[in-house]
Design goal:
The chain is an all-alpha fold and 79 residues long. It has a domain at 39-75. It is 54% helix and 0% strand. It is elongated. Belongs to the COX17 family. Keywords: Chaperone, Copper, Disulfide bond, Metal-binding, Mitochondrion. Cu cation binds at residues 35-36. InterPro entries: Cys_alpha_HP_mot_SF, Cyt_c_oxidase_Cu-chaperone.
Length: 79
C-alpha cells in the first residue's frame, strides 16, 4: 500500500541513468566508475590541492578542477 502512495508523490524512473553502463552511455564504452575515470586530470587536481591546501588551492587550482569536470562530463557523468 505504501509503495503505491509514495509512487504518487515521488516519480522514480524505471531505468535510472547509469553512466557506468556501456549500453546506456556510449560516451563511456569501458564502463569506468567515477573513481577510476580521468586519472590524469584527477591526479593533477589532487596534487595541486596537496601543494597549496584548501585555502589557496581554491583559487590556484580552479583551472585543473574545471579540466577534470570537463573530462568527467565527457564520459557522461553529471554533476
Amino acid at each position: 500500500m505504501f509503495e503505491r502512495i509514495t509512487s504518487l508523490w515521488f516519480h522514480v524512473p524505471e531505468n535510472p541513468y547509469d553512466p557506468t553502463d556501456p549500453k546506456m552511455n556510449p560516451l563511456n564504452p569501458q564502463g569506468l566508475k567515477p573513481c577510476c575515470a580521468c586519472p590524469q586530470t584527477k591526479s593533477a587536481r589532487d596534487d595541486c590541492f596537496l601543494k597549496y591546501g584548501t585555502t589557496d588551492g581554491d583559487e590556484k587550482c580552479q583551472e585543473l578542477v574545471q579540466n577534470h569536470l570537463a573530462c568527467m562530463r565527457g564520459l557522461g557523468f553529471k554533476f
